[in-house]
Write a structure and sequence with these properties.
The chain has two domains: about 210 residues, Spore Coat Polysaccharide Biosynthesis Protein SpsA, Chain A; about 55 residues, no CATH class. With about 280 residues, the chain is α/β, with parallel strands linked by helices. Strands 1, 2, 3, 4, 5, 6, 7, 8 and 9 form a nine-stranded mixed beta sheet that branches. About 45% of the residues lie in helices and about 25% in strands. The relative contact order is 0.13. The chain is built from eleven helices and nine strands. Helix 1 packs parallel to helix 2 and helix 9 runs antiparallel to helix 10. The longest helix has 17 residues.
């Protein structure tokens, strides 16, 4: 399979809880693409472990003209880390990547071609969720392909799997990045992008192995509980204020989604894996 270098950037953030082996495998899946980025911006979101720093140092030495490392003095969360990383990105097209996920070998070639050929601003793709390793497939998350379908889908949930997106830097700059006071920050970003007139798409192919981890309960606890429900209400209020939701849509999504977040966890877990993927 031939490889070629293209002028685009990959943006990823890592913090101290990540495992060095996961980070190494994630980076390897980037540099072994059929379409290789000429820049990888890696944000250290606060102090890291010795093992993580060793992995990053290895790649900085091996690929000095590709890696740009941004070191933040303390952990400020994903939205802040991505905003800081985007300050140094030098290419007009940027791909997101998480520090424990694994790209399909032709991910960037498929998505960047689709973005350019269809004059789109944000392009995502389908993901394969796995547990211990990529052979332990838990589910495949499918998202709609075309702009109007994506916007309709977005009335109820985020229309992209965040780690899969490839986007134009001009769109990010116009929106002034992620809102660090809102969670989930990616859902908010996509809604503001739509309201600003940017165009969306998702490729039909699976482009990313998304790591849930060996303990599936821990993986979904981030989307459960009173704190998550409070953040979600705050997000939906913002959507109402922006005009993305009308009052009927606002009440509808509150009545359906908020009670799910405060169900007993075993029941929530069953519903999540049975109906939400």
């Amino acid at each position: 399979m031939s490889k070629k270098v293209f002028e685009f950037s990959v943006l990823m953030s890592v913090y101290y809880k990540e495992k060095p082996d996961f980070l190494r495998r994630s980076i390897e899946s980037i540099i072994n693409q059929t379409l290789i980025p000429n820049e990888i911006v890696l944000v250290k979101d606060g102090e890291l472990t010795e093992g993580l720093n060793n992995v990053i140092n290895d790649y900085e030495i091996k690929y000095p003209h590709i890696f740009t490392v941004v070191s933040l003095p303390k952990n400020g969360g994903l939205a802040n880390a991505l905003n800081e990383g985007m300050r140094v990105v030098r290419n007009p097209i940027v791909a997101r990547m998480d520090s424990d996920d694994i790209c399909f070998k032709n991910r960037f070639e498929i998505q960047i071609n689709y973005l350019i050929n269809n004059s789109l601003d944000i392009v995502g793709g389908q993901i394969v969720e796995f547990s211990k390793d990529i052979k332990d497939v838990v589910s495949i998350r499918e998202v709609p392909l075309f702009h109007q379908e994506i916007v309709k889908f977005m009335k109820f949930r985020s229309p992209f799997s965040h780690p899969t997106i490839v986007f134009k830097k001009e769109a990010f700059d116009f929106l002034k990045g992620y809102d660090v006071n809102i969670f989930p920050e990616d859902y908010d970003f996509f809604v503001r992008a739509y309201l600003a007139g940017f165009m969306f798409g998702n490729v039909k192919e699976n482009v990313l192995f998304f790591r849930l981890g060996e303990n599936l309960s821990d993986a979904i606890k981030r989307r459960w509980g009173l704190n998550y429900a409070i953040n979600e209400i705050k997000l939906y209020r913002k959507f109402l204020k922006l005009g993305f939701f009308n009052y009927f849509e606002y009440i509808k999504v509150l009545l359906f989604k908020i009670p799910l977040r405060v169900l007993p966890f075993k029941l929530y877990s069953y519903i999540y894996f049975k109906f939400s993927r």
